[in-house]
Automatic annotation (TrEMBL):
Main location: membrane
Record-stated family: Belongs to the peptidase M50B family.
InterPro entries noted in UniProt: CBS_dom (IPR000644), CBS_dom_sf (IPR046342), Peptidase_M50 (IPR008915), UCP006404_Pept_M50_CBS (IPR016483)
UniProt lineage: Bacteria, Pseudomonadati, Bacteroidota, Cytophagia, Cytophagales
Domain CBS stretches: 305-351
Cofactor detail note: Binds 1 zinc ion per subunit.
Binding sites annotated in the UniProt record for Zn(2+): 59, 63, 163
Recorded GO MF terms: metal ion binding; metallopeptidase activity
Record keyword GTP-binding present: no
CDD domains cross-referenced by the UniProt entry: CBS_pair_SF, S2P-M50_SpoIVFB_CBS
Residues at the active site: 60
Organism, as annotated: Indibacter alkaliphilus (strain CCUG 57479 / KCTC 22604 / LW1)
Stated name of the protein: Zinc metalloprotease
GO biological process: proteolysis
Cofactor(s) required for function per UniProt: Zn(2+)
């Protein structure tokens, strides 16, 4: 989160704004100023953009609070120049829950649109002034109302992983297996993404960015869901690794480097008095070498708070926890005793083998 500014939190959901957002504001100010637009008008445009992003935050809170109702927490909401992202701990697997979580965001914008429309009905408005593309005290609410309507409609385009795509997936998943539903929604999303990029090249560069974002997001989600569906029905004990490279806690980094270069190992279990106490990854070794020298004991860079998972836990759940906690390795525990490890690569291999066998 170093590249983002913390804005505040509500109901345990933290809101951050990404640094690239300042480029958007600067670009608006400079491009308007070069056209000779008066400072006061530029101020109104900037205010409009800020208010619009408040609406985007409210949209993301729609998702986050709907998810909270199903016991799913949201890590944070990050605002980028092309929109906001609410990072949910996980996506609900029950199609009905996913439907509500996905639709809650656009519904917030529809609600804001309706409220502003009522206000505008009382204060009076002139639709023709929308064509002038000039934001000032008498048009800003009207612009904000239209922008919210556009946000709602745009997000409902069935391009997975946008909200509309998730709604589509949820509908398909009522009848089809989730992996199949994701594949279909992902395919439609990628088709629309290519269309966005192509159309955007001639009209609007932001659409190109959004198209690329959708394309990559769709393929990531499809492989993620497939992986998860292959893990279904297995327990952690089915994929446990009982043989793994170890290192003593006081061994120098040079020893780790030697083992790293001489084998397939990318991480190690750190032992002290014959007890497994932590893990050491390739990245931690490299980091240690950069900041110190190779005589540094491995305990200075190792991770001594490894993730602990029970053998009887479901494999898909274990994998999800490892992904969210960003742990490449986890300790597998049975009756309070260390039994072996589980690593992400090894889970991927497990999936490859299972999917090859299922053909
Ligand atoms: Zn949304």
């Amino acid at each position: 989160m170093k590249l983002s500014l913390y804005l505040g939190s509500y109901k345990n959901v933290k809101v951050f704004i990404h640094w690239t957002f300042s480029i958007l504001l600067l670009w608006i100010i400079i491009s308007n100023w070069r056209q000779g637009i008066p400072a006061a008008d530029i101020g109104w445009t900037v205010l409009f953009v800020l208010l619009l992003f408040v609406c985007v935050v409210l949209h993301e809170f729609g998702h986050a609070l709907a998810a909270q109702r199903y016991g799913i927490q949201t890590k944070d909401i990050i605002l980028y120049p092309i929109g906001g992202v609410a990072r949910l701990e996980k996506i609900p697997e029950d199609p009905k829950q996913e439907l509500w979580v996905a639709i809650a965001g656009p519904l917030v914008n529809v609600f804001i649109f309706l409220v502003l429309s009522v206000v505008l009905t009382f204060t009076g408005f002139n639709l023709e002034s929308l064509e002038e593309l000039k934001i000032n005290p008498s048009t800003i609410l009207m612009y904000l109302a239209s922008a919210n309507l556009i946000l709602a409609v745009f997000n409902l385009i069935p391009a997975f992983p946008m909200d509309g795509g998730r709604i589509l997936r949820a509908f398909l998943a009522i009848r089809l297996p989730r992996a199949k539903a994701t594949q279909i929604a992902g395919g439609i999303g990628q088709f629309l993404a290519i269309f966005f990029v192509f159309f955007g090249l001639f009209n609007n560069p932001i659409l190109v960015l959004i198209g690329i974002f959708i394309f990559l997001g769709a393929s990531a989600e499809v492989s993620h869901t497939q992986q998860q569906s292959f893990l279904k029905g297995y327990k952690v004990k089915d994929a446990i690794m009982m043989r793994f490279p170890i290192l003593a806690f006081d061994a120098p980094l040079s020893k780790a480097v030697e083992k790293l270069l001489n084998s397939q190992a990318t991480h190690f279990v750190i032992v002290k008095d014959d007890v497994a106490v932590g893990t050491l990854s390739r990245n931690q070794i490299i980091q240690g070498l950069k900041e110190n020298d190779e005589m540094l004991p491995v305990e200075k860079v190792a991770d001594f708070s490894p993730l602990k998972i029970e053998t009887e836990q479901d494999l898909d759940e274990a994998w999800r926890v490892m992904m969210t906690k960003n742990k490449k390795v986890a300790f597998i525990i049975e009756n309070g005793h260390f039994l072996g490890i589980l690593d992400q690569e090894n889970i991927s291999e497990f999936v490859m083998v299972k999917s090859a066998l299922s053909k």
